[in-house]
Design goal:
heterodimer; A: 281 residues; mainly alpha; MetI-like fold; 2 strands; 78% helix; globular; B: 314 residues; 15 helices; 0% strand
Chain lengths: 281, 314
């Protein structure tokens, strides 16, 4: 085959489709970014091409910090995210270890129950759950989300970690126990370090899912100062159909940055977690 | 925790009580249930309990602010069946859940096959193209809300500039337009998930098989169906079922883009349950009933998924 022929087929069948995918998947982010930096005079002028940025301003970002509750929302989101992640991770490591390691009656049944719990969506539960939250006296408090996010984090993380614990040979632990370590010591010193990649995947996933959650945050912490970034941005920055697009897009950018950063650092853990949890079964 | 090795005690010797308790606790079944108890406590309190409470609430006329309601039997369910908005909601959810998935699957498969080729910046691109699935959906939906704006939409601007359309397009202005717009945004969000899951499956396809098939004279399309597809079939089926379940039970995208409008014509189960139960009149019983109408469908999908996962394991 001739070289130029190969190159042109590569362009046609690889680079062109890839370019189209890139435009489709990344254009909304590009748009978010340029609108957040565009002065209002330019933004509302429908004569000029909206796709370019001829001058830019940080006014929208300043507005977000000076005239809205955005910093408070960010703090709320962070508190809830770390609380829910920590709690879920602790429960999931223990549960994943039990399911992946111990032989006990009903083990398969419990594993199946965890898998099914993972499939129960928040939209099925949020109305009665709001009543439970009120009854427990945690409505509009951090605990309302720290305790409810684990309902979708624990099944996922336990399932993922169960798979990880299974791949670590039993003999390693048994050797340590013959050498006089107790089971807990063997678990902590021998198995945990080996399962660390799995724990990291579970942690990153829990972080992302908590940071992004919307429905529970809207219903259980949707009033006053307790809003999270997504809820505050969607509910408070949009007032009576008057769209302040600049601050809205600035909030969208800032609210996305933390997950994007965590994700950039741990892409591979992310991908392996995603495929292990959702696909490997 | 003491470190006395338990196993040094000779058989037959009566054990001191403390060590007997410790042996019992460290036996596998006991330790297993002990380890699982914190997780199950949370799941029972915040998942099982609300599930059954939801069934009860759906049989009452309970409203927000009032502690209890009257038992009304199946009245909420019956009223919903007669409600035109609810019937439209069911239809919308099926369209939204089942029409978007083939597109996500096809585009995701295509993208995965592309990303499986060797080219420069491959890892960077793979990471960047997963972004729609990573960032908070409520926030990326805001970007779509602006992309669909009746006045400021860049799509309208471009099409007008190219002379394709005269005026701006009302992307969210009518039911049909709004549903198509919602589906496009959903496909945008879901395609990367399919791509990355399938890409992971593609990496398990043996290279030698491809080469052997190529030597035998099979073209790329034949090789895909004969060599690649059998290997990734499991992943494709499982990913598809997951996606149907999630799309079916979605909330954020519709809430941000249309809130069910115009004129309640684009609701899906989640947003309609929210409007009935929490926003609007706060009819908790009615809202709970809307949610529970999802249950049979979700249960059926979950059963299929579970069966499939089981069959893959063995």
């Amino acid at each position: 085959m001739v070289g130029s022929n190969r190159l042109s087929s590569r362009i046609l069948f690889l680079y062109v489709p890839l370019a189209l995918f890139t435009i489709f998947l990344l254009f909304p982010f590009y748009w978010m970014l340029i609108i957040s930096l565009k002065p209002n005079s330019l933004l509302l002028n429908t004569k000029v091409n909206p796709l370019y940025l001829t001058e830019f301003t940080l006014r929208h970002y300043r507005y977000l910090f000076e005239n809205t509750e955005f910093p408070r929302w960010a703090w709320n989101t962070a508190v809830v995210t770390f609380g829910a992640t920590l709690l879920s991770l602790t429960c999931s490591i223990l549960m994943g270890y039990a399911l992946g390691r111990f032989r006990f009656r009903g083990g398969n049944l419990v594993g199946t129950a965890v898998f099914l719990a993972y499939l129960i969506p928040p939209t099925l539960l949020f109305i009665p759950l709001s009543q439970v939250v009120v009854r427990f006296g945690i409505y509009n408090q951090y605990w309302a989300l720290i305790l409810t996010y684990p309902t979708f984090l624990i099944p996922f993380a336990s399932w993922l970690l169960m798979g990880y614990f299974r791949t670590i040979p039993r003999e390693l632990e048994e050797c340590a126990m013959i050498d006089g370590a107790s089971r807990l010591q063997a678990m902590w010193r021998i198995v945990m370090p080996l399962a660390l990649p799995g724990v990291l995947s579970a942690a990153i996933f829990s972080f992302t899912l908590s940071w992004n959650e919307f429905l529970y945050a809207l219903v259980f912490m949707g009033s006053g100062q307790m809003k999270t970034i997504p809820v505050g941005t969607v509910n408070d920055l949009i007032r009576a159909d008057v769209f302040q697009w600049g601050p809205l897009m600035a909030a969208a950018v800032l609210g996305s940055v933390p997950v994007a950063i965590v994700y950039m650092f741990f892409v591979d853990h992310y991908v392996s977690g995603m495929t292990a949890g959702a696909v490997k079964g | 925790m003491t470190t006395t090795p338990v196993r040094t005690i000779a058989p037959g010797m009566p054990l001191p009580l403390r060590q007997r308790i410790r042996l019992w606790i460290e036996s596998e079944p006991v330790l297993a249930y002990l380890f699982m108890s914190p997780g199950w406590l949370i799941l029972l309190l915040f998942m099982s309990y609300p599930f059954f409470l939801g069934i009860w609430i759906s049989l009452t006329d309970r409203t927000v602010g009032l502690p209890t309601g009257e038992f009304v039997g199946l009245r909420n369910y019956r009223d919903l069946l007669r409600d035109g908005v609810f019937r439209l909601t069911v239809l919308n959810t099926f369209i939204y859940g089942f029409v978007t998935v083939p597109f996500k699957l096809l585009l995701g498969l295509l993208l995965a096959l592309l990303l499986n080729q060797a080219f420069r910046l491959r890892n960077v691109l793979r990471a960047a193209l997963l972004l729609p699935w990573i960032v908070p959906t409520a926030l990326s939906s805001l970007a779509w809300l602006m992309l669909y704006d009746p006045v400021l939409s860049p799509f309208s601007w471009l099409l007008k500039d190219w002379g394709v359309v005269e005026g701006s397009i009302a992307f969210l202005g009518s039911r049909v337009n709004a549903i198509v717009s919602l589906c496009v945004a959903n496909i945008w969000r879901g395609t990367p998930f399919f791509a990355v899951a399938i890409l992971a499956g593609l990496q398990a396809v043996p290279h030698e098989l491809h080469e052997a098939a190529a030597i035998e004279g099979a073209n790329a399309i034949q090789r895909f169906f004969a060599v690649t597809l059998p290997v990734i079939r499991g992943i494709v089926v499982i990913t598809t079922l997951f996606s149907i379940i999630w799309t079916f039970a979605d909330f954020q995208l519709v809430y941000v883009l249309t809130k069910g409008g115009p004129a309640n014509s684009t609701h899906i189960f989640g947003t309609f349950a929210w409007q009935e139960g929490i926003g609007g009149a706060g009819k908790l019983g009615m809202g709970a009933a809307v949610s529970l109408y999802m249950f049979p469908i979700l249960a059926a999908l979950s059963a299929i998924l579970l069966r499939y996962v089981r069959s893959q394991e063995t």
